[in-house]
Design a protein that fits this description.
- With about 425 residues, this protein is α/β, with parallel strands linked by helices.
- The chain has 2 domains: about 230 residues, Rossmann fold, CATH 3.40.50; about 120 residues, Rhodanese-like domain (Oxidized Rhodanese, domain 1, 3-Layer(aba) Sandwich).
- Helix content is about 35%, strand content about 15%.
- It contains 17 helices and 13 strands.
- The strands form 2 sheets. An 8-stranded mixed beta sheet has the order 3-2-1-4-5-6-7-8, sandwiched between helices. A 5-stranded parallel beta sheet has the order 9-13-12-10-11.
- Helix 4 links the parallel strand 1 and strand 2.
- The longest helix is centred in the middle third of the chain and has 18 residues.
Length: about 425
């Protein structure tokens, strides 16, 4: 951060005019605005959190902004990823975001990394002279990777996360306080914490948290105020409440309690039991492959239903998803209910007949589907753990999205 002083440059008359509401503030002034112009911020992700982050960092006059993303703009992104628009659906998110940022402020430099962030490239990318890294991602493997790389290189990590109506915000900077691993040494079990795609997110929530992340980054660059180092803010939009909890540095932290040279980047997908890089919002562990689950296509399902075959089609999505679209003739039991029933049987608290599983016969061939094929594979795994024959269960490839694409084009997609 101190290297900023050697990069300070004068502001042009146009820049003074553009940032006039900044420079008249004593906490910023001309010196502070020059610091922002000389600053470099690396933003991981240009989605929900990345959208307000990129826009406000560009508007604030951060001189050099790096973007790491490899996805393309999808129509479903537009509910929350406000840097993109209908005109850029199908376009690289990097190109879409960069064009909007440069339209907002042509005086900045945008550096694009059109690659998945991995353990192989993180240190190279992070090492390209960034003052602050901002985590705008939505998966655990990338969060742990960002944290460990930042600790190793001594870079502050501005963290944010969102889910449904709730958000979190903190600054993890091992030079001055705890890191992400001090608070979360181990990731949650795979499937325990649903993704935003599975559980949903209020479209305006990433705007709230992302803007706060941008605020924290600017405070760090200015050396102003009290950054959220050693604290985490918890936001509940339904209650419109903010709570702050303290985070202590863990003297036994496997990352920030050791010498930087000893920090080794892991295989974070294996560490977390889930993938970080998949264009499907419902990406998961590849459960079908790990369990050697058999698959069927939506055309196989359609034929079986029309022919009256002795099969049972099970929809394991959540009830509110059934209201959006559903296949007629299916048994509807949400994946969490199957998981709870499985846990109860394994713990000896319940009998099979006392759970929702009594609706699922053990002697019938089962075709299991969800939105895209991940939760259904997990559900088959749960059933196989309590005596259901894996050879009689099939995961429906592509789920109801494939049904809408290939069988019923009039069906709503989400």
């Amino acid at each position: 951060m101190e290297a900023l002083h050697s990069r300070l440059a004068d502001l042009s008359n146009d820049e003074v005019k553009r940032y006039s509401r900044h420079v008249i503030m004593p906490e910023v002034g001309m010196e502070g605005q020059r610091r922002l112009k000389a600053s470099s911020v690396l933003l991981i992700g240009t989605g929900g959190l990345g959208s307000p982050l990129a826009l406000y960092l560009a508007a604030a006059g951060i001189g050099r902004i790096g973007l790491v993303d490899y996805d393309v703009v999808d129509f479903t992104n537009l509910q929350r990823q406000v840097i993109h628009g209908v005109s850029t659906v199908g376009v690289s998110k990097l190109d879409s975001a960069a064009a909007r940022m440069l339209d907002l402020n042509p005086d900045i430099e945008v550096v694009k990394y059109n690659v998945p962030l991995t353990s192989e490239n993180a240190l190279r990318i992070f090492g390209e002279d960034w003052d602050v890294v901002i985590d705008g991602t939505d998966n655990f493997p990338t969060r742990y990777l960002v944290n460990d790389a930042c600790v190793k290189l001594g870079i502050p990590n501005v963290y944010g996360s969102i889910f449904r109506f709730e958000g979190q915000l903190s600054v993890f900077y091992a030079e001055q306080g705890p890191c992400y691993r001090c608070m979360f040494p181990e990731p949650p079990p795979p499937g325990l914490v649903p993704s935003c795609a599975e559980g949903g997110v209020l479209g305006i929530l990433p705007g709230t948290i992302g803007t706060m992340q941008a605020t924290e980054a600017i405070k760090l660059l200015l050396g102003a105020g009290d950054p959220m180092i050693g604290r985490m803010m918890l936001y509940d939009a339904l209650e419109m409440s903010f709570h702050t909890i303290k985070i202590r540095k863990d003297p036994a932290c496997p990352v920030c309690s050791v010498d930087k040279e000893a920090v080794v980047l892991l295989d974070y997908e294996q560490f977390c039991g889930m993938p970080a890089h998949d264009h499907s919002e419902f990406s998961s562990v590849g459960a079908a492959d790990e369990l050697d689950v058999q698959t069927v296509t939506v055309h196989d399902v359609k034929s079986a239903l029309e022919n009256g075959d002795d099969i049972l089609v099970i929809d394991v999505r959540d009830p509110h998803e059934w209201d959006i679209s559903a296949i007629k003739g299916t048994l509807r039991i949400p994946k969490p209910d199957i998981q709870l029933a499985k846990n109860g049987i394994q713990a000896g608290r319940k009998l099979w007949e006392e759970t929702v599983l009594q609706e699922i016969p053990k002697d019938k061939t089962l075709y299991v589907h969800c939105r895209s094929g991940v939760r259904s594979a997990d559900s088959i795994g749960f059933l196989s753990e309590i005596g259901y024959d894996l050879d009689k269960m099939y995961n429906v490839e592509g789920g109801i999205l494939a049904w809408a694409d290939e069988i019923d084009p009039e069906m709503p997609k989400y």
